[in-house]
Amino acid sequence: MNHTPRKRFGQNFLTDDAVLHNIIQAINPQSHDTMVEIGPGLAAMTRLLVDNVTAMHVVELDRDLVVYLKKNFSADRLTVHSADALQFDFSAIPVPADRKLRVVGNLPYNISSPLLFHLAELAPHVQDQHFMLQKEVVERMVAAPGSKAFGRLSVMLQWRYHMELMFVVPPEAFDPPPRVDSAIVRMIPLSQPLPCDGARLEQVVQKAFSQRRKVIRNCLAGVANEQQLIAAGIDPQLRPEAIAMEQYVALTNLLGE
């Protein structure tokens, strides 16, 4: 198909066979899997997955690509959802009672963070997620406390997932080549995340990282006082990126009492 990648959809199509092989190896599809791919594009990855799983779904926003996918795959092999992944209800995909959904995709860089937060709501129903993202975003996701990359994305996702940067993908593996390196991340939902109100944790973390250069006592002024920070095991003089996810959860629970 002669398809011009569309900038407004953040389209960069993966064309490197060796990289595709490495991604499929990382995903390790099984015959009993129900798999959903976000943004299949010209189906480079879809073709390698569809014959190896029980049920394959794709979510595609570009209507021209939806037509292409429906034309090239029979409906019994591939279920095509013409939808915006940010609005799509992934929990509506039918999965056998004893199984969980597996999610994969080359995520558009311009919506990667909101899409990750949207999918986080689905975590209890997901076996794992393998995504290609901007390398810098993956580094933020897996960052440890104390590093400059550690922030809101790190805390909110580490609360729900075990995450691992699998390998880096260079720009020349794509058409058109993006201006940045990409990386593959594996995300496995934690079977028992620390008990916490997610919406309240999000509010605390967002406030904490809204002024990164200030110490946490000043960042959270009006939300938590010094005694509450100390009670949650937080040094009030630390900067927000030096505080671990577990401490943010402890503080959120303390404020909710």
Automatic annotation (TrEMBL):
It is found in: Cytoplasm. Residues 19-191 form the Ribosomal RNA adenine methylase transferase N-terminal domain. Its main location: cytoplasm. GO terms for molecular function: 16S rRNA (adenine(1518)-N(6)/adenine(1519)-N(6))-dimethyltransferase activity; RNA binding. GO terms for cellular component: cytosol. S-adenosyl-L-methionine binds at N12, L14, G39, E60, D84, N106. It catalyses: adenosine(1518)/adenosine(1519) in 16S rRNA + 4 S-adenosyl-L-methionine = N(6)-dimethyladenosine(1518)/N(6)-dimethyladenosine(1519) in 16S rRNA + 4 S-adenosyl-L-homocysteine + 4 H(+). Its EC number is 2.1.1.182. NCBIfam families: ksgA (TIGR00755). This is Ribosomal RNA small subunit methyltransferase A. The lineage of its organism: Bacteria, Pseudomonadati, Pseudomonadota, Betaproteobacteria, Burkholderiales. The gene is rsmA.
